[in-house]
Amino acid sequence: MHLRSLLPALLVLPACRKPPEAPAKLEQLAGYLFEHMGDEDAEALSVGVHNLDKWLDGNFEATLEGYTIENPSGGALGTLDGKERKTEGMVGAAVASRLDEGVAKATKVLTQADFTKVYEGSYLQYDRTYSDSASCYNAKECDELAFKVYSVADYPVLGELRANFKAEYRWVEFQRTEDGEPLFASVQRTWLVKPADVDVDWLSVPAQYFLGVNIPHEGGTRRLQATWILAELSNGPAPESVALNLVVGSMQDSDVMLNDWLNR
Fold first, then answer.
1. Chain-centre distance of CA 252, in angstroms?
2. Which residues, 6 or more positions from 35, have their beta carbon under 8 angstroms from its beta carbon?
3. What is the pLDDT of residue 20?
4. Are 183 and 216 spatial neighbours (Cβ–Cβ below 8 Å)?
C-alpha cells in the first residue's frame, strides 16, 4: 500500500491506548492492585496480577516473613465511597503463603464458609449480607462479588472488636507467559466502612484496608495478603513496629488456619 492511500486510513483508526504499567516491586504493587480493583476495565488489574506473579517467583520465601509496603494514595481510597480518608499514621504490611488447594476451592471458603469455624477462636460472629450471588461468582459465571460484613472478633487484653466491612471479589484473567494458557486469579479487597468498636478506651481503629490475591500455582494457590491499618492509642498513633508485627502475625496465623480447613 502506498503512503498516500495509507494516511486516510490512519486518520479514521481509533487512537491507540498505551498498555497500563504496573509497579514491579511489592512495596508499590499491593497499593496499585487495591486501587485498580474497582476499575471498569480489568486490564490494569490483569497487568498487576501478572507482575505480582512474576515478583513472587523470585521473592516468595522472603515474603513468607512479611514485607513493609507503601500505603495506597488518599485519592485511591477516596474512590471507595467518595469520602476523604486519612492515611497519615497508617502502616502497611504484606505476607505470602501457599495453600494446598486450588484457587476455586480457597475462594469458595473465603466467600461462603462460616468464619467462626474456619478461624475458630478468632471470630465470635461473622455475618455476610450479599449484594450479588456468591454461588454465581464461585462458578465463574459472574466476574464480581460484593457483600457487607459485620464481625465480632475476640482478642486477648483488648476484648471484643466489632467491625463493619465492605468486601469485593473479582476474577482476573492473566497469562503467565506470552503463549501460555489464560489463568484466573481471585482478587479481594475489604475496608472498614466506619471506625471499629473496641472494648478498651485506650485504643481506636479508625481505618483498615485489606487486599487478598489468590493465584493458581503448581496445583495449589499462591496467596498474598496485604493490610493497611490506622491504630491509635490514647496518647497518639501505635508504634509502627508494634502495629506491623501484630498485622504480620495475624495474617500468617489466619492462612495457617485457612489451609488447615482446606485440608480437612
1. 15
2. 72, 73, 76, 79
3. 55
4. yes
Distances (CA, A) of 77 to 33, 155, 220, 223, 228: 12, 27, 32, 23, 11
Contacts of 242 (CB under 8 A, 6+ apart): none
The residues spanned by each domain of the chain are 63-262
User: Does the pLDDT of residue 247 top 70, yes or no?
Assistant: yes
Give 249's Cβ-side CA count (13 Å radius): 6
Architecture of domain 63-262: 2-Layer Sandwich (3.30)
What is the pTM for the complete model shown?
A: 0.90
Q: To which residue does cell 490514647 refer?
A: 234
**Mean pLDDT, the chain, integer:** 89
Q: Which helix (H) or strand (E) holds 7?
A: helix 3-12
Residue 149 in contact with residue 165, Cβ under 8 Å? yes
